[in-house]
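Hi there,

I know you've been waiting on this one. I reran it after we fixed the sequence typo, so this is the corrected version. Both the input and the resulting structure follow.
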Amino acid sequence: MCARLSPVTLCCVTLAVWLCCGAHTKASVLNLKRFIGCAVREFTFLARKPGCSGLHITTDACWGRCETWEKPVLDPPFIESHQRVCTYNETRLETVQLPNCSADVDPSYTYPVALRCDCGVCLTSTTECITSV
């Protein structure tokens, strides 16, 4: 036997499903736009090296925005700044073989996989920085 739902019950069920599923997707997108912090996120790039064909690699990388501020001060350099970047805290290295390499070229290509990321000082050893410590 099939039970019939009243229009009010049907409306409530539809609203509940929308709030649990549909609204969650929209809220997640909004949360990413406002996200302050640093997290591991999937990233795809084209690995290339002279003498080999390219290979698309999907790995984990650091992604996010970190709190940054500057304020003027009276003494040189006349500005005090607190600049942090989303950077690697812990990584492991993976190696793949690039396709179609010339006989004189090593096909090995090594890249980092992010295991943990944090907001921190920009270090040129792991991150592309405008200025570094």
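Quick highlight: Residues 1-30 have pLDDT under 50 and may be disordered.

Best,
R. S.
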